Amino acid sequence: MKQPLTGILPVAPTPFHPDGRVDEDGMRRVLDCMIDQGVDAICVLANYSEQFVLSDEERELLMRLCLEHVAGRVPVIVTTSHFSTDIAVARAKAAESLGAAMVMMMPPYHGVGLVPAEQGIVEHFQAVSDAVSIPIMVQDAPLSGVTLSVPLLVRMAREIENVSYFKVETAFAADKLAALIEAGGADIVGPFDGEEAVTLLADLDAGATGTMTSGLLPEKIRPVVTEYRAGHHDTALKQWKLCLPLINHENRQCGLRACKTVFAAGGVIKSDHVRHPLKPLSERTKSRLLDLARELDLIALRWGM
């Protein structure tokens, strides 16, 4: 990438047939729909892609399928997290060889009781950086149970060549982003937030240059970022207020199931199936989700019709 990535970099859902098999054609349609939503990049194989229910063979299939199908129309970020440094390195090398623009990694963890010391975390990211020449995004999320302090993140940005992007979705993300940007300076190329942009305005105030949401409503959230960065803060706030009821419902009630449910309702994919032990949305929650989505006239709701 010649220019730093900014804007909205949503996570692509992984569609399954009703019997649980990966829906390859549905995956292609998901990617096409997201490009039509006007995204700045697409992230695949992330937590909201249900990466934790995919086999290694399915991961490899989906990574190749996504990168070949997108074919450079937008940058693709491949999530390569794993506790094993060797596997994380192998995944990153494979992603780069197939054309990934960036990889995203959580720190190594296996439950809250199996986390390396800070030096082990640094060495983990260093090994991946040594193996690739594309940027690495550090995903700082409470899911891992790993505390990544601002001094540690700044150290990684300064000492590890390709570590330059950060997705911060911890509690009080805005304060952490502000501290990271102040301490890291030019080494913090891409400070992003996550969590479906539920704290986006505060995070933009703190200096975030973009957001990584789901694929549910990127065409509605992207203007919040672009207007804010253009200095039109009142316009950004107005747009964010418009989006917030749906963002909140997704974040607090639906999780990763929201995007798949709307994509299925709009004909992007044939099924909103999630693999066990995940369960489908209740009809009550689904009904409210679709009502809120219709109010915003989302692209995904009419894309396949």
Summarize the topology:
Layout: E1 7-8, H1 24-36, E2 42-44, H2 56-70, E3 76-79, H3 85-97, E4 102-105, H4 118-131, E5 136-140, H5 150-159, E6 163-168, H6 173-184, E7 190-193, H7 200-205, E8 210-211, H8 218-229, H9 233-254, H10 257-265, H11 283-295, H12 299-302
Parallel strand pairs: 1-8, 2-3, 3-4, 4-5, 5-6, 6-7, 7-8
Helix pairs in contact: 1-2, 3-4, 5-6, 8-9, 9-11, 10-11
GO molecular function: 2-dehydro-3-deoxy-L-arabinonate dehydratase activity; 4-hydroxy-tetrahydrodipicolinate synthase activity
Pfam families: DHDPS
Protein name: L-2-keto-3-deoxyarabonate dehydratase
Summary?
The protein has 305 residues and is of the alpha/beta class. It has twelve helices and eight strands.
